[in-house]
């Protein structure tokens, strides 16, 4: 070859090494994209988030610690079979966790979280498992039979936990919520956005401490709609209610001591990020913060 | 097909489907007028009625997902419920209104007159700004024409000739003939610059005083009132317009609902805003405008 052109490797999350299940071991942070936005009631587009996050988080000359991280590629999904889709997401999550690695799922919509939580449950027999969900919405609707599966992510996960909502912490909810969902939320640990201005405040401390006490393994689910509209450009809300990226990162930092084994980051719609990078970069930073939580949990 | 199929989104705010024979007193009758804006304006407002209907469902989703159709605002702890006794009737879209012509304008005005004659309230989903003109034509043919509140970056020609109109959000260059017509009609202009400079509270006070002074109001909501950075889906581009927060503060802060004689929402071109914020802001503003006609407070 007579041409000396700078060519960089195929983009991966945070420029982490690309690998497969055989490369995973205890202490590794496995990452995978989730090309699935078919089964929630929201605007489609989250399936493209993994691609955009790889683009936004790689080749930027940013030096992040990635020696303990593996990008597994995208999870297999069944776009036309909701039941089969949940089953295969659960199976893949279980197999990843069975290696001893912790798992970070990036992209997709909130319909994937219950399936991935089922994977954590299957991989954690006899353990007390819990959920920390950071989202603008409570997603506590009890309308299970509806398709698409709107507003039920938290309900579906809580149904898998023997202690129900008492092992669930809901952080960052804002704006109008169904009155019934708001009442049910009182059964969970609850810190709305207005109580997260001070990360040292009582609400967040109580949530963190109780989750630490009652859970052996935690699923941390972050929906990008928790962010301010102008940052996430995903939450279709004109009133701008939502956390800043800085606030969300501060909240995530307080969760570093918890036994988080699986984290997911859903709800980012890169098609709505017209410049192609600003909000994706913000989401990528949030994704790396989740990876750091998983890293801390392996220590 | 599930019972919650998205077919519901084809009607505005979960309204009943109806026909011209179904009007009842105090009903809010929704009529889409999918007319496109002419050159040199950017096209796309023909899709406005459908975009507004879909967006109204997104705005109402917390209510619709509640078995009691009640929501709690987490910030204020205030509870509101969709009124069970409000009558929303979506009679569909006017066909063959493109291109706009005097005949189409007269048809819209005649329909508005028919709705008003049944003591119902017309709500026109545009369409471009000429739809607002047709609404006013229809309302002004009555014996006691209502006052006119225009939320727009422009001095709307039809409103400029009505009696003492109030223009909110005017911004940029305006034709001298409209300035003169507005002045001759005893109109008042509360410009976007006034609102930015003096604050939203002062604007609310001025608009509330106007509302108090009039028994009935025609309201024209032109989405070009919003700054183009917040709402790109409009035929024209308004630099320095209001923010959605300012518009919502005005519509939520002034009790307009019980005085409404007719409403037109115009200049929503969904395809020009891939983020979808324009029709969402329009639907949110419209539902705030309808206020107590749609929602009621619930004791906590």
What do these coordinates show?
The complex is a heterodimer of chains A (299) and B (300). Chain A has 299 residues and is of the alpha/beta class. Chain A has 9 helices and 9 strands. Helix content of chain A is 32%, strand content 15%. In chain A, helix 2 crosses helix 3 (113-123) and helix 8 (245-253) packs parallel to helix 9 (278-298). Chain A starts with 28 loop residues before the first strand and ends with a helix. The longest helix of chain A is centred in the last third of the chain and has 21 residues, at 278-298. In chain A, helix 1 (49-57) links the parallel strand 1 (29-33) and strand 2. With 300 residues, chain B is an alpha/beta fold. Helices cover 34% and strands 19% of the residues of chain B. Chain B contains 9 helices and 12 strands. Chain B has helices at 48-64, 102-117, 130-140, 157-160, 176-184, 192-198, 200-213, 244-253, 277-290; strands spanning 16-17, 28-33, 70-73, 79-82, 88-93, 121-126, 147-151, 166-168, 188-190, 217-222, 260-266, 295-298. Chain B is globular, with a radius of gyration of 18 Å. The A-B interface holds A 41, 43, 141, 143, 145-147, 150-151, 173-182, 192-194, 229, 233, 236-241, 271-272, 274 and B 2-4, 58, 61-63, 65-68, 70-75, 79, 81, 230, 244-245, 248, 274-277, 280-281, 284, 298.
């Amino acid at each position: 070859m007579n041409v000396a052109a700078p060519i960089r490797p195929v983009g991966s999350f945070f420029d982490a090494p690309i690998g497969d299940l055989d490369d995973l071991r205890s202490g590794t942070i496995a990452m995978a994209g989730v090309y699935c936005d078919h089964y929630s009631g929201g605007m489609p587009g989250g399936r493209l988030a993994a691609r955009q996050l790889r683009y936004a988080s790689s080749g930027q000359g940013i030096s992040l610690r990635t020696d303990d991280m593996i990008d597994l590629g995208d999870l297999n999904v069944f776009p036309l079979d909701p039941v089969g889709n949940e089953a295969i997401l659960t199976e893949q999550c279980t197999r990843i966790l069975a290696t001893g690695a912790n798992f970070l799922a990036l992209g997709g919509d909130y319909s994937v979280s219950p399936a991935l939580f089922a994977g954590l449950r299957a991989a954690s027999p006899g353990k007390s498992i819990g959920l920390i969900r950071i989202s603008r919405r409570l997603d506590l609707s009890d309308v299970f039979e509806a398709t698409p599966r709107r507003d039920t992510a938290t309900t579906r996960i809580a149904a898998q936990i023997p202690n129900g909502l008492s092992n669930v912490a809901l952080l960052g909810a804002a704006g109008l919520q169904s009155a019934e969902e708001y009442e049910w939320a009182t059964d969970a640990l609850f810190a709305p956005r207005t109580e997260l201005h001070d990360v040292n405040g009582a609400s967040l401390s109580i949530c963190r401490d109780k989750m630490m006490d009652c859970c052996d393994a935690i699923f941390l689910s972050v929906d990008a709609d928790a962010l301010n509209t102008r940052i996430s450009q995903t939450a279709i809300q004109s009133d701008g209610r939502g956390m800043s990226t800085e606030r969300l990162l501060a909240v995530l930092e307080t969760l570093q001591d918890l036994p988080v084994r699986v984290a997911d980051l859903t709800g980012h719609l890169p098609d709505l990020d017209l410049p192609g990078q600003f909000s994706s970069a913000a989401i990528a930073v949030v994704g790396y913060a989740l990876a750091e939580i998983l890293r801390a949990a392996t220590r | 097909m599930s019972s919650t199929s998205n077919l519901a989104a084809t009607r505005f705010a979960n309204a009943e489907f109806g026909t011209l024979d179904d009007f009842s007193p105090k009903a809010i009758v929704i009529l889409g007028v999918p007319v496109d804006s002419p050159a040199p304006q950017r096209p796309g407002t023909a899709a406005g009625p459908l975009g507004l209907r879909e967006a109204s469902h997104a705005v109402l989703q917390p209510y619709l997902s509640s078995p009691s159709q009640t929501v709690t605002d987490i910030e204020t702890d205030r509870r509101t419920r969709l009124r069970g006794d409000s009558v929303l009737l979506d009679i569909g879209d006017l066909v063959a209104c493109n291109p706009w012509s005097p005949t189409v304008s007269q048809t819209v005005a005649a329909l508005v007159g028919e709705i008003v004659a049944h003591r119902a309230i017309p709500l026109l989903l545009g369409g471009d700004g000429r739809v607002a003109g047709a609404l006013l034509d229809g309302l002004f043919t009555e014996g006691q024409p209502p006052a006119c509140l225009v939320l727009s970056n422009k001095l709307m020609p039809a409103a400029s000739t009505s009696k003492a109109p109030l223009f909110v959000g005017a911004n940029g260059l305006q034709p001298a003939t409209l300035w003169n017509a507005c002045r001759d009609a005893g109109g008042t202009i509360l410009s976007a610059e006034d609102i930015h400079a003096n604050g939203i509270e002062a604007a609310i006070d001025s608009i509330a005083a106007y509302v108090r002074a009039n028994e009935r109001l025609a309201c024209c909501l032109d989405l070009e009132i919003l700054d183009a950075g917040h709402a790109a889906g409009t035929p024209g581009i308004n630099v320095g317009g209001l923010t959605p927060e300012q518009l919502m503060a005005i519509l939520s802060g002034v009790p307009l609902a019980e005085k409404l004689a007719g409403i037109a929402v115009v200049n929503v071109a969904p395809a020009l805003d891939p983020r979808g914020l324009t029709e969402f802001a329009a639907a949110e503003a419209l539902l705030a405008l309808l206020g107590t006609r749609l929602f009621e407070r619930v004791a906590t």
